[in-house]
Amino acid sequence: MTDFATLLRPDRGEAARLLHLVDATLLPEWLKAHAGPRRQLVEAARFEGKAGQFLLIPGGTAGEWEALVGVAKLSALTPWCLAHAAERLPEGSYRLAGDMVPGNAALGWLLAQHRFTSYKSKPEQPAGPRILLSAEPARVDEMVRLADATALVRDLVDTPAGDLGPAEIERAVRDWAKGSGVDVEVTKGDALEQGYPMIHAVGAAALPARAPRLIEARWGDPSHPRLAIVGKGVVFDTGGLNLKPGAGMRLMKKDMGGAAHALALARLIVAERWPVRLHLLIPAVENAVAGGAFRPGDILTSRQGLKVEIDNTDAEGRLILADALTRAGEEGAETLVDFATLTGAARIALGPDLPATFSNDDALAADLIAAGSDVADPLWRLPLWDGYDDMLKSDLADLSNSADSPFAGTITAALFLRRFVREGTAWAHLDTFAWRPAPRPGRPKGGEALGLRAVHAALSRRFRRS
Questions:
Q1: How many CB atoms are located within 10 Å of the residue 183 CB?
Q2: If you write DSSP's letter for every residue of 177-198 in order, what string do you get?
Q3: Which segments in the chain show pLDDT lower than 50?
Q4: Which domains are assigned to the chain?
Q5: Rg for the chain (alpha carbons), in Å?
Q6: How far apart are CA 291 and CA 350, in angstroms?
Q7: Are 179 and 259 in contact (CB under 8 A)?
């Protein structure tokens, strides 16, 4: 893991090169104030102040140099507006010119210097560290924590499924818990089959080598408000007996992206010492194909007691989440958030960047959407439309795990989950992609945290109010 704390430091006046941030509107004013060789160089290079543009320019003294960095809007810096420069600048220390502060833009500066190279036999040698000196010392630790959390999600999702099974997810939780005052409990084997039958059924075909399990972590004062975070941990999804085609299976190492988001958020909460009683739940399974696989037409009894007819074994994520959501309710969760790479329908509707967001609580939903806008980690709310509940009807059981219609697949999946949320609990469900199909500055192709910072910001405001 990249040591982000070495790349962002409070500005104590040490020597550093200046970064001049401009946008297309204000560039003429900047040029007017910097006549001479600087202006001539900028004009010769046809630098226009557009986002992503970057130019080394002479410094204020002989032999020195600085950099001109184009941003979309100088009055509203995004988390990614410095990422392009951070990827290309020479090694050294930098500060923003004038009285500008990096704010959330420090996040992109940090993540632009993170690489996942565990499987490169000859990894490309990275440039030396580019250090940003911040005039906001109080925010340095916050930005470093967010970068660490984002990088954790990316690295876990990028790790091949052959090296990241249920046991490895458990190890990641236990490694974090050591020395953090976090208690970890893992249920597997007969206890899982008896207590969490749908988690067991989905993971049964991967026994014994990659045994399914429910991983729980608890932290905080039991007298504080109870917050539960649930993450879908399907380490690889073949689709089960409803086998996915090859193209659909190629990226299914990322089907544990919900678990990665949940773990990253839990780490942030504990590091920031929120006044909550935290309950992290990760059902970790592999949806494999073998003689022990659950079948279309099977009827499973959930932990809650509802009987679920299996229409499609590739709709397995909602099954394991259902047992975990039930467990969260048993412990009295007042606020409950789950992350899951749940439906392809969400991606068809909203594309890769926008997690489909559902909630049974309008205030919680509004908080999430507003926070997503504030931190440039956007969410999009979809409705829990009661009229589609009939699509989950079963002739033989209490409900089916998959709708009998090709329509509204994202909504019906959320409606299925809602059946397992305890009444009175403020609940939000994020159907996130956890993947970036094309690179952008500071955001390489591969695993990605989508919705993590939005939920962190919204819940932080809710639970850490003075």
A1: 10
A2: HTTTT-EEEEEEHHHHHHH-HH
A3: 466
A4: 4-135 (3.40.220.10), 146-463 (3.40.630.10)
A5: 24
A6: 37
A7: no
pLDDT of residue 305: 98
Which one of the listed residues 115, 139, 174, 244 is annotated catalytic?
244
DSSP β-bridge partners for residue 185: 216
> CA distances (Å), 327 to each of 303, 317, 322, 352, 421, in order?
8, 16, 9, 30, 9
Is 50 tagged catalytic?
Answer: no
Fill in the DSSP letter of residue 465.
-
Residue type (1 letter), 458: A
Residues in the chain: 466
What single letter denotes the amino acid at residue 183? Answer: D
Helices 137-158 and 452-463: crossing angle in degrees, nearest 10, is 130
- Catalytic (active site) residue 253: no
In angstroms, the Cα distances linking 325 to 199, 293, 303, 318, 466 are 12, 23, 10, 10, 30
Catalytic residue among 318, 327, 419, 453: 318
Q: Rounded to the nearest 5°, which phi and psi values hold at 70?
A: -85, 135
Render pLDDT for 90-133 as a digit per residue (tens, 0 to 9).
Answer: 999 999 998 899 999 999 999 999 999 899 888 776 678 999 99
Residues with Cβ within 8 Å of 418's Cβ and at least 6 positions away in sequence, in order, are: 358, 360, 384, 427
**Phi–psi pair at 37, nearest 5 degrees:** -55, -35
Whether residue 161 contacts residue 235, with contact meaning beta carbons closer than 8 Å, is answered with yes
Enter the tokens of residue 52.
């992503």
pLDDT at res. 124: 76
The SS3 call for residue 350 is: helix
What pTM was computed for the model? 0.96
| Nearest-angstrom CA–CA distance, 118 and 181 | 30
Residue-wise DSSP of 119-154: T-SSPPPPPPPEEEEES-HHHHHHHHHHHHHHHHHH
CA distance 61 to 69: 20
* Side chain identity at residue 275, one-letter code: P
Angle between helices 452-463 and 257-271 (to 10 degrees): 40
Phi then psi dihedrals of residue 399, to 5 deg:
-165, 165
Range list of β-strands (E), 264-342: 277-287, 299-301, 307-309, 335-340
CA 98/CA 362 separation, integer angstroms: 42
